[in-house]
Design brief:
Elements: H1 2-13, H2 16-40, E1 44-46, H3 54-66, E2 72-74, E3 77-81, H4 85-95, H5 105-108, H6 118-138, E4 143-151, E5 167-174, H7 182-195, E6 204-207, H8 214-219, H9 221-240, E7 245-254, E8 258-267, E9 274-283, E10 288-297, E11 300-309, E12 313-324, H10 331-342, E13 351-357, H11 369-377, H12 381-396, H13 398-420, H14 426-432, H15 438-445, H16 450-457, H17 462-473, H18 483-486
Parallel strand pairs: 5-6, 12-13
Antiparallel strand pairs: 1-3, 2-3, 4-5, 7-12, 8-11, 9-10
Helix pairs in contact: 2-12, 2-13, 13-15, 14-16, 15-17
Length: about 475
């Protein structure tokens, strides 16, 4: 407390101009530190331009946390560094996050009232049902997103019209390297048919993201080859990294439809189909000759099988895999993996070729010294601007600051002199303060007893006495003095 009181007495002993200069310097220092903090602190902005739904917000936060990206949750949005916003939006778009918002039944029927027409109620119920099915399909293995369109059943209004049964169209988008087999496709159709009243599984059309039906994709050679190539490429990318391999699949299929008829004959029982025997015998007594022969024909069973081979039967499959020699060294593992996954059959004439070649690398453009200097200077520009502004302000206030420092030094030197002069007579004090300015004399007299100050002031001329009294009477001066007093 004594130190604080001593500093307060020293502060009050300063003149108004000195305190104004010190206050201005402190304000400038605070402003400079604030500006430097604002400039050096990374700018932050909302990641999405429009608010997100709760399910979308949870999905984005989960993905950013998995990537170890710093973010701040906000009301229906997330706040990230402005410099990382574009990169994060691109990365989220490639990952398919967040999914489009799908209204469920509760949300679709929230605005239904008592006076809502029945046609609007049915339409909203159908939209909500489609949303429920889409959300359920998103949770299945290998499916990234789904879209469902339901066409309701339409009854015949007149005698010459026919009723139209309910139908549904489902478009699914699979994850990279994943495909839906025939069993999963049948399960999806049955699930959708069971969710819509009056809908049969045969009337559910299932398409992939390219518009190909799953049942036709299994029969079409082009679609089957494309699916096999996509599956192999996805498996190799996940095992060795994206861009390390290139897979191409070529299949040769029979374009004609052929019919094959097979006739099979088998005998009843054991033995040959036909057999014959002959025997001859002489009679010695009566001198005779006997000859006999026998033939036996067994029954025959015949079976004719007619087979029809449709167009598109696989004749031969060729698979070529190019491997980046700089990134992958285990060629044998890739050959074994592709051979097993593609179902290579040497008896059918299939071929598998795996070659390691150095892939073309995109070279970075060579930058000269000016480019490197520009990259080094641009991050320091805000700090340089703040430093230059601070130097200009200090140069402009050079004279007031110099005067304030001198005043402070005089006050500090005057304090021990005032303490030393406390025991002298008024005449001796007047002689010691003869060459001091009024504010310095007032600063030293403020530490003397009141009787001694009054006796010393009586020895001053009226003008100097009035100036000393004005400085002693001002216990507190404004932070910013008047223009007349300052200048």
């Amino acid at each position: 407390m004594d130190a604080v009181a001593q500093w307060l007495r020293r502060w009050n002993a300063l003149s108004g101009r000195a305190r104004a200069a010190i206050g201005a310097a402190l304000v400038l220092a605070a402003l400079a530190s604030t500006v430097i903090g604002i400039v050096t602190h990374p700018a932050r902005d909302a990641l999405f331009s429009s608010p997100l739904y709760p399910a979308q917000l949870a999905e984005v936060e989960e993905q950013l946390a998995a990537w170890n990206e710093p973010f701040t949750p906000s009301d229906r949005n997330v706040v990230v560094a402005t410099g990382r916003r574009s990169a994060l939006l691109l990365r989220l778009a490639l990952a398919g996050v967040p999914h489009d918002h799908i209204p469920d039944s509760s949300e679709a029927l929230a605005g239904i009232g008592v006076l809502t027409p029945q046609s609007v109620v049915e339409e909203q119920a159908r939209v909500g049902l489609a949303g429920d099915i889409e959300r359920a399909l998103r949770g299945m293995r290998g499916i990234r997103d789904a879209r469902v369109i339901i066409a309701p059943e339409r009854r015949a209004a007149f005698a010459d019209e026919s009723a139209t049964p309910a139908t549904a169209s489902v478009r699914v988008r699979t994850l990279n390297g994943m495909q839906i087999d025939a069993k999963e496709a049948r399960g999806i159709r049955r699930f959708v048919a069971a969710s819509v009243p009056g809908l049969s599984a045969q009337r559910v059309t299932l398409l992939d993201d390219g518009g190909n039906a799953f049942e036709s994709a299994n029969e079409s050679g082009v679609a089957a080859g494309a699916r096999l190539q996509q599956m192999l490429q996805g498996a190799l990318d996940r095992a060795f990294g994206a861009g390390s391999t290139i897979v191409r699949v070529v299949e040769e299929r029979d374009p004609a439809t052929r019919s094959v008829s097979t006739l099979t004959r088998t005998p009843f029982g054991a033995g040959a189909l036909r057999e014959s025997s002959a025997s001859e015998r002489y009679r010695t007594g009566k001198m005779g000759y006997d000859r006999s022969s026998a033939k036996r024909t067994r029954g025959v069973a015949q079976r004719r099988v007619r087979e029809s081979v449709p167009a598109g039967a696989l004749r031969r499959r060729d698979v070529a895999v190019l491997v980046d020699a700089r990134r992958v060294a285990d060629i044998a593992a890739i050959r074994a993996l592709v051979r097993a996954a593609a179902g290579i059959d040497a008896r059918r004439g299939d071929r598998l070729v795996v070659e390691a070649l150095p892939f073309a690398q995109q070279r970075d453009a060579a930058h000269d010294g000016w480019w490197l200097a520009y990259g080094a200077i641009v991050p320091l520009l805000p700090t340089l601007v703040v430093a230059i502004v601070g130097l200009v302000v200090l140069r402009a206030m050079r004279a007031p600051l110099r005067w304030a420092l001198r005043a402070m030094m005089r006050a500090v030197r005057a304090r021990p002199r005032a303490d030393a002069l406390g025991g002298y007579a008024p005449n001796a004090l007047r002689g010691a303060l003869r060459d001091e300015p009024p504010h310095t004399a007032a600063a030293m007299m403020s530490a003397l007893p009141a009787s001694t100050v009054a006796a010393v002031l009586e020895l001053y001329p009226p003008e100097e006495r009035a100036a000393i009294l004005r400085n002693m009477a001002r216990t507190r001066s404004p932070l910013v003095p008047s223009a007349e007093e300052f200048f």
